[in-house]
Amino acid sequence: MPRILLALMLREMATTYGRSAGGYIWAILEPVLGVVLLSVVFGLALAKPGLGSNFPLFYATGFLPFTMFNDLAAKVASSIRYSRPFLAYPSVTYLDAMLARIILNALTHATVMVIIIGGIFVIYQLPVVINLGEICEALLMITALAVGIGTLNCYLMMTFPVWERAWQILTRPLFLASGVFFLYDMMPMPAQNVLWYNPVLHCITQLRRGVYPTYQASFVSAEYVFVLSAVLTLFGLLLLSRNYRDMLER
């Protein structure tokens, strides 16, 4: 199994990032440009960010985890379709295809996050006071949630092709509702009562708790995210285990 996972990961590295360093450089530049754009636009409109005084750091801690969740969930959802030619071999299973994408893309996004946030601390000479445990927990929460949603969507999108388009439409407001631009604590109580059920908001806020140790954010519930992720993952795997052979023949 390790050899199969490694082969699938190497294939994805070659197809996604290319065989040169340019592909990986773009994987870093793309989120950097996103953070810069957010910082410039909102820096002109606001006197200070929701936390601290550094706009790039505030938006990086919102934009990067959201991008990690969104991309990882999409990669997991398309894993069987992406690796369809290899699933014809008895030694390769749909779990291999999913695990290879999860490991590679989770590590890639975590590395990009470390480079960009670390770079902001260095460039702006910010005092490095972080809680590494809280940050690691946030990364686990993001990965678990993306795997849960991606696993269920993997079945739904291959069984009902229209669901892929419907999911894209349904999740467009998620970028605005996940705390990338604002803090949950700043919202009125009626909005808080609704937004609390958004698990992505918990993930992003958990990361900010690690980067801003004085930020308490007591509403964050890792248990809620992990339980929801486990339920979605188990339900998705149950559907896939019963139907993925039929899905491959379509």
UniProtKB/TrEMBL annotation:
Which keywords accompany this UniProt record? Capsule biogenesis/degradation, Cell membrane, Membrane, Polysaccharide transport, Sugar transport, Transmembrane, Transmembrane helix, Transport
The reply on keyword Nucleotidyltransferase is: no
What would be one Pfam family of this protein?
Answer: ABC2_membrane
Q: How does it sit in the membrane?
A: Multi-pass membrane protein
Q: Which GO MF terms are attached to this record?
A: ABC-type transporter activity
Q: Where, per UniProt, does this protein localize? A: Cell inner membrane; Cell membrane
Q: Where would you say this protein principally sits, based on its record?
A: membrane
Q: Which family does it belong to?
A: Belongs to the ABC-2 integral membrane protein family.
**Protein name listed in UniProt:** Transport permease protein
Tell me the classification of the organism that encodes this protein.
Bacteria, Pseudomonadati, Pseudomonadota, Alphaproteobacteria, Rhodobacterales
